[in-house]
Amino acid sequence: MSTLMYRPFSSWANNSEWSMRFEEEEVKVVALGTVWVAAITSLNFLRIFTEGGLQRYVLSLDGPVVTASGFKDELVVVTHASPSLPSNDQMLEFRVFNIRNGMQPIRGRLPLT
């Protein structure tokens, strides 16, 4: 179980903070954009919330999350594309989302050395 809490630095209304409780899953990664909050959970769900706390999108990711980062309208998410190889190398995949347009313009493998 997890609780996501949001408190804006500059507020358009008094008491504009909110929280969301996740009963069956645990929040693993949080990323922020200009007017949205992303939470990625232990069940590999990407949940996008508005700054008012309304859940706008729910997406199922292909694997466990590694990291995520937000900037303005863009969100990038890195996940495991497969279990670790016998050499302990990892296969990672990235996805870039445009939250405002609800689009995923870029997706691919993430080569690391």
Tell me roughly what share of residues is in helical segments: under 10%
CATH architecture heading = Beta Barrel
Structural class from helices and strands? mainly beta
Average residue-wise pLDDT: 90
List keywords for this structure.
113 residues, mainly beta, Thrombin, subunit H, four-stranded antiparallel beta sheet, 55% strand, DNA-binding, WDHD1/CFT4_beta-prop_2nd
Question: What does this molecule look like?
Answer:
The protein has no helices and ten strands. The chain has one domain: Thrombin, subunit H. The chain starts with a strand and ends with a strand. With 113 residues, the chain is mostly beta strands. Strand 9 and strand 10 form a beta hairpin.
Quickly describe the structure:
This protein is mainly β and 113 residues long. Helices cover 0% and strands 55% of the residues.
Please write out the topology.
Blueprint: E1 2-6, E2 18-22, E3 27-32, E4 36-41, E5 45-50, E6 55-60, E7 65-71, E8 74-80, E9 92-98, E10 103-109
Antiparallel strand pairs: 1-2, 3-4, 4-5, 5-6, 7-8, 8-9, 9-10
